Amino acid sequence: QNWQILITLSAARVEVFRRHFLNQFGHHLKIGPVPISA
User: What is the rounded distance in angstroms from the CA atom of residue 14 to the CA atom of residue 12?
Assistant: First the structure.
């Protein structure tokens, strides 16, 4: 069952990184902040 935990943690890190990236560079890409539900 450990692989499920690893996948969950990895997915969470990717999501946090994606939001951080879009929040930092979204204004350059004309995207803007990303809603949590996105």
Answer: 5
Q: List the alpha helices (DSSP H) in 1-38.
A: 2-29
Dihedral sign for Cα 28, 31, 35, 38, please: negative
pLDDT tens by residue, 1-38: 799 999 999 999 998 988 888 777 766 666 556 665 54
Per-residue DSSP letter, 1: -
Please report, to the nearest 10 degrees, the dihedral formed by the alpha carbons of residues 12, 21, 23, 20 taken in order. 30
The predicted structure's pLDDT at residue 1:
77
The whole-angstrom separation of Cα 23 and Cα 34 is 7
